[in-house]
């Protein structure tokens, strides 16, 4: 293996909130990195500086309440600050589904993703809905609202390049949304152990330009298929 | 075990003997066990109210209320047994222990009878058998039991019944030891921890009766 | 030196004759009630399971390093596990799922937990508080003899039709509710029954530990004179006592779902799959602390002794243990950020999770403080304890990433989590177990472990361990999911093949290195250098008795005059001051540790 494979840099991402997620990741990386270097540095320094030598006697000392208070407070402040920074992005990603998003249904089933589109009328649950297998198509710069469902066991919809992950739970309809910022082909994965074929449960997320997406959707809607 | 510590003067600890402390600690874990079962029942019932029947319509509340009264009486007889041995009254101890055993066994018996009655009405803890029974049931008969209501009902009351049964078994052992004169006013730990367990089981039942049969 | 040898000789005489003539062999070695023998029984059985767990990990790593390639020597395994091909046997995905499940289950429940709680709990609690044995020796025996059939059932599940459980060590419903979903029927049920039995074993052990610590302390052993190892085991016992019944209830409900058709966790009949996760993690997060608190206690013990310096902030160490014990109950939701639980709950669990980082940080800073101006001896136990500290720093810091809910969305269920949990469980708990075994080995067997061999084992383990698990952070950051049979199915993960191979090769090296420990362990039992009563010049009570201690431990009731970490005290000419040494006459501090009640109250009685 080459060590150039090694990196703390996250792979590139292409959704509206991915920069915010990555920013928090880098903030935590810096904070923990600095704490790591300091604590391990101090540890190694002490090990070298205070290693046993003939005639050395350790200082008889039981600690310092002042220091305890200082580092307890410091840790608490750092942790709570990270928590507060995280909250806003979490709410954006998991709670605040934008208005006017294109609604689709993704139903996970051992071991495939069934993706239902509203069809020409733009409404789900009507006769002109159409379904594709293991592929999600969407237009760039358009929010997509996925109704995530499962029929058998837990699955987890993982769109790494969109920074999206959400378990699909049988009996639940869980809202997931994202808005891609670049066209291209991306990954759909299953991140929750779902049985023997878990490893094969992957698919493709295709982000089109708005015009291409319309063309694709129209073609799909007209494609003759047996109604379920 | 008493010989190990007799000649020693360790720290005061909780100022109770090991067996009693051990029983208290064990009962704490029992509290968590029933908390888990009852908590699951509450969560499932809140999430799926439609799957649960109105208690008074499906379950025989008066019968179980009577049974609850029997179990409370058995707690009273257990207290009497302990009071008797505190006075070194061997005959009283045996008499009241026997009464507790009979009342406890009666409780379990009524519970078993209740189970057979419910099952014959189609109140079972599983989906598949429920359907089988429902097909044979009269037209328009109410949907009862099933994989949520029946399952939680039988699991909670069943585990309680198992605790009562174990308690009756241990009471029999206590009575056997009492007849051999194992307990005195100065050595009544076995009776006391038996009582702790028995009162705990009684208390759990009052809680279960309230949650399952009344609310 | 000669006096200590005389001590041993007299102890062997007194204890040995006593044992040989009055306790039949079967009661001494098999159905033993002596806490030290039960500790050893737990040690041998769980070291065996550690080897089994390691072998399972090795097979898993082979599949990840060389996906879909025939595994050398795997032809002996049945066709249900490895598909025979002309070139050799190739692992089947269902067997891989079983490996994932059973590696986790065996390592957590049958190796790490019984080593920390069964071995060190039994060995240390009575000795460190000055008791002759546990409060309930026969219950203690029952605890061990329940764990054995549980372990046998777990192993037997590999041999049954359908193979061993394959729904992950967390057994998430509904995957685990029916063989329809996994192809595993009986194996999954054996898994549930085995863990229920083991839970009962842990439970009665916990009742015993708690009663013993509360009721059997020697005169003068006040709460704030208890060594931190025993403190941590006490808090752990409380967590076991309260957490295991929740697991037991959930396991029984899942068993009913599988066998008699109830619907607690089965959505197809109206049940709630998330209820299983809530119950499991309500137990599971305290379980995480059950697996780390005793390791922290052992580390504190070894660190203070080998640094010849009082532990820094003894009181805040105890308070940190207790607050972890409390906070551990309100953070379970951080395992479920992506589970479909109400996202508003996610934020509250994130805040409580950030709060629980504080006591862990306090402990780390106090360990560093202990090393400040110390006199550090780099013996094998100390090397392992120091690597516990440095690895726990990494494991703790990587935990911050997943505590932050938005970052967790990306790294949840990836190898970043695998890296994190192994930094805590292997880098943390297992290094502390090595520290503990090498430190208390002389007390258990009366002989020292071989020091040079121990150092070689430590250095190789430390290096290989980091080469195996540190790159896993990177795999996770690149998006590689955990519990995945063949990651090359994903185009975007194919560039990770070389790194996976690298990890696999060093995993084999890491496993092989453990043979050094196994050899050193058995060789030292018979051929190790004889140890005196107190080879580490320690203060705590277990070092005042012969090695190994006779039945009943203390020839006479010890009296405790001070805290456990009075190293390099000006009150003593040597650099240690045992808890049992009476204070000097005349003016001067009788105890360095500030006590609410400085007089040894029991001593006056």
What features would you describe in this structure?
Chain A is α+β, with helices and mostly antiparallel strands and 228 residues long. Chain A is built from 3 helices and 10 strands. In chain A, helix 1 packs antiparallel against helix 2. The longest helix of chain A is centred in the first third of the chain and has 32 residues. The radius of gyration of chain A is 25 Å and the shape is elongated. Chain B is mainly alpha-helical and 215 residues long. Chain B has a single domain, classed as Cytochrome c oxidase, subunit III, four-helix bundle (Four Helix Bundle (Hemerythrin (Met), subunit A), Up-down Bundle). In chain B, 77% of the residues lie in helices and 0% in strands. Chain B is elongated and about 55 Å long. The N terminus of chain B is likely disordered. By secondary structure, chain C is mainly α. In chain C, strand 1 and strand 2 form a beta hairpin. A two-stranded antiparallel sheet of chain C has the order 1-2. Chain C contains 18 helices and 2 strands. The chains are: A alpha+beta (228), B mainly alpha (215), C mainly alpha (605). Chains in contact: A-C, B-C. The interface between A and C is large, with 88 and 104 residues.
**How much is the radius of gyration of chain B in Å?**
21 Å
Give the full name of the CATH homologous superfamily of the largest domain in chain A.
Answer: Cupredoxins -  blue copper proteins
Total E-strand runs of chain B: 0
How would the global form of chain B be characterised?
elongated
Report the biggest beta sheet of chain A as strand number plus sense, adding barrel if it closes.
5 strands, mixed
Give the CATH architecture of chain B. Up-down Bundle
Task: State the fourth-level CATH superfamily of chain B.
Answer: Cytochrome c oxidase, subunit III, four-helix bundle
Q: Which CATH class of the largest domain in chain A? A: Mainly Beta
Number of E strands of chain A: 10
Helix proportion of chain A: 25-40%
Question: What sort of overall outline of chain A do the alpha carbons produce when their principal axes are compared?
Answer: elongated
Mean of pLDDT of chain A: 91
- Please identify the oligomeric state: heterotrimer
Rounded mean pLDDT score of chain B: 85
What is the CATH top level name of chain B?
Answer: Mainly Alpha
Largest interface: A-C, 88 and 104 residues
Derived from helix and strand composition plus strand pairing, the structural class of chain B reads: mainly alpha
Distance between the termini of chain B: 46 Å
How many domains make up the coordinates of chain A?
Answer: 2
Fraction in beta strands of chain B:
under 5%
């Amino acid at each position: 293996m080459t060590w150039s494979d090694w990196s703390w840099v996250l792979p590139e991402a292409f959704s509206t909130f991915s920069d915010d997620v990555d920013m928090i990741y880098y903030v935590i990386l810096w904070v923990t990195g600095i704490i790591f270097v300091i604590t391990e540095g101090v540890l190694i320094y002490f090990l070298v500086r205070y290693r046993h030598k003939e005639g050395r006697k350790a200082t008889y000392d039981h600690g310092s309440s002042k220091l305890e208070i200082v580092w307890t407070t410091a840790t608490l402040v750092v942790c709570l600050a990270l928590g507060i920074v995280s909250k806003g992005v979490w709410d954006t990603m998991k709670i605040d589904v934008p208005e006017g998003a294109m609604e689709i249904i993704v139903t996970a089933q051992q071991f495939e993703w069934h993706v239902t589109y509203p069809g020409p009328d733009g409404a789900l649950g009507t006769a002109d809905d159409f379904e594709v297998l293991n592929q999600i198509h969407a237009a760039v710069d358009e929010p997509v609202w996925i109704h995530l469902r499962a029929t058998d066991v837990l699955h987890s919809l993982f769109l790494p390049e969109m920074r999206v992950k959400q378990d699909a739970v049988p009996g639940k309809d869980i809202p997931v949304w994202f808005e891609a910022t670049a066209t291209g082909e991306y990954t759909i994965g299953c991140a929750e152990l779902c049985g023997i074929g878990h490893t094969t449960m992957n698919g493709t997320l295709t982000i089109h330009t708005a015009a291409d997406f319309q063309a694709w959707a129209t073609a799909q809607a007209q494609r003759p298929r047996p109604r379920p | 075990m008493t010989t190990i510590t007799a000649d020693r003067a360790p720290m005061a600890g909780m100022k109770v003997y090991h067996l009693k402390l051990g029983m208290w600690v064990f009962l704490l874990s029992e509290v968590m066990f029933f908390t888990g079962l009852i908590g699951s029942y509450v969560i499932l019932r809140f999430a799926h109210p439609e799957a649960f029947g109105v208690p008074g319509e499906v379950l025989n509340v008066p019968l179980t209320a009577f049974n609850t009264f029997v179990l409370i009486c058995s707690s009273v007889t257990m207290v009497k047994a302990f009071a008797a041995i505190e006075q070194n009254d061997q005959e009283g101890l045996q008499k009241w222990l026997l009464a507790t055993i009979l009342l406890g066994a009666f409780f379990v018996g009524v519970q078993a009878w209740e189970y057979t009655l419910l099952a014959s009405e189609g109140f079972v803890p599983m989906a598949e058998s429920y359907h089988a029974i429902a097909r044979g049931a009269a037209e328009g008969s109410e949907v009862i039991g099933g994989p949520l209501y029946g399952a939680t009902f039988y699991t909670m009351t069943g585990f309680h019944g198992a605790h009562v049964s174990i308690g009756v078994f241990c009471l029999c052992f206590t009575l056997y030891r009492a007849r051999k004169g194992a307990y005195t006013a100065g050595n009544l730990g076995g009776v006391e921890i038996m009582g702790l367990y028995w009162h705990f089981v009684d208390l759990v039942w009052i809680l279960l009766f309230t949650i399952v049969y009344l609310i | 030196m000669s006096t200590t040898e005389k001590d041993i000789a007299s102890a062997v005489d007194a204890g040995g004759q006593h044992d040989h003539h009055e306790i039949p062999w079967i009661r001494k070695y098999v159905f033993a009630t002596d806490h030290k023998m039960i500790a050893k029984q737990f040690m041998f059985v769980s070291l065996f399971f550690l080897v089994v767990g390691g072998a399972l990990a090795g097979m898993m790593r082979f599949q990840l390093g060389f996906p879909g390639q025939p595994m050398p020597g795997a032809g002996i395994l049945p066709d249900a596990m490895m598909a025979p091909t002309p070139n050799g046997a190739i692992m089947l995905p269902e067997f891989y799922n079983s490996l994932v499940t059973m590696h986790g289950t065996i390592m957590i429940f049958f190796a790490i937990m019984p080593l920390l709680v069964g071995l060190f709990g039994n060995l240390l609690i009575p000795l460190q508080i000055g008791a002759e044995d546990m409060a309930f020796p026969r219950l203690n025996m029952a605890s061990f003899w329940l764990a054995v059939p549980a372990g046998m059932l777990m192993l037997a599940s590999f041999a049954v039709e359908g193979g061993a459980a394959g729904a992950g060590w967390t057994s998430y419903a509904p995957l685990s509710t029916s063989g329809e979903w996994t192809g595993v029927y009986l194996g999954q049920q054996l898994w549930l029954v085995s863990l229920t039995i083991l839970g009962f074993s842990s439970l009665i052990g916990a009742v015993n530990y708690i009663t013993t610590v509360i009721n059997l302390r020697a005169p003068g052993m006040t709460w704030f004179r208890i060594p931190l190892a025993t403190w941590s085991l006490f808090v752990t016992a409380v967590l076991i006592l309260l957490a295991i019944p929740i697991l037991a209830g959930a396991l029984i409900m899942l068993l009913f779902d599988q066998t008699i058709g109830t619907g607690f966790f089965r959505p197809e009949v109206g049940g709630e799959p998330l209820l299983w996760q809530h119950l499991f993690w309500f137990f599971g997060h305290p379980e995480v602390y059950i697996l780390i608190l005793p390791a922290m206690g052992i580390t504190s013990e070894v660190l203070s002794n080998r640094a010849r310096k009082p532990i820094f902030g003894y009181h805040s160490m105890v308070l940190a243990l207790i607050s972890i014990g409390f906070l551990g109950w309100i953070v379970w939701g951080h395992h479920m950020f992506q589970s479909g639980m109400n996202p508003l709950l996610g934020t509250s669990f994130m805040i409580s999770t950030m709060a629980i980082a504080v006591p862990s940080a306090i402990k780390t800073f106090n360990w560093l403080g202990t090393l400040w101006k110390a006199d550090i001896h780099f013996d094998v136990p100390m090397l392992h304890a120091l690597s516990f500290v440095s690895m726990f720093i990494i494991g703790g810091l990587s935990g911050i990433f997943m505590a932050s809910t938005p970052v967790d969305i990306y790294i949840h269920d990836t190898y970043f989590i695998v890296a994190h949990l192994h930094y805590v469980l292997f880098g943390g708990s297992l290094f502390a177990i090595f520290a503990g075994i090498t430190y208390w080995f002389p007390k258990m067997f009366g002989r020292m472990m071989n020091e040079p061999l121990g150092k070689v084992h430590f250095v190789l383990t430390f290096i290989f361990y980091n080469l195996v698990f540190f790159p896993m952070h990177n795999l996770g950051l690149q998006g590689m999911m955990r519990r995945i049979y063949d990651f090359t199915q994903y185009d975007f993960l194919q560039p990770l093949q070389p790194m996976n191979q690298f990890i696999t090769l060093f995993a084999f090296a890491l496993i092989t290195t453990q043979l050094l420990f196994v050899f050193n362990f058995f060789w030292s039992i018979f051929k190790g250098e004889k140890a005196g009563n107190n080879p580490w010049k320690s203060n705590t009570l277990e070092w005042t008795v012969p090695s190994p201690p006779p039945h009943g431990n203390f020839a006479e009731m010890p009296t405790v005059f001070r805290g456990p970490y009075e190293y390099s005290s000006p009150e003593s000419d040597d650099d240690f001051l045992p808890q049992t040494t009476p204070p000097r006459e005349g003016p001067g501090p009788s105890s360095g540790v500030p006590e609410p009640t400085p007089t040894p109250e029991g001593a006056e009685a």
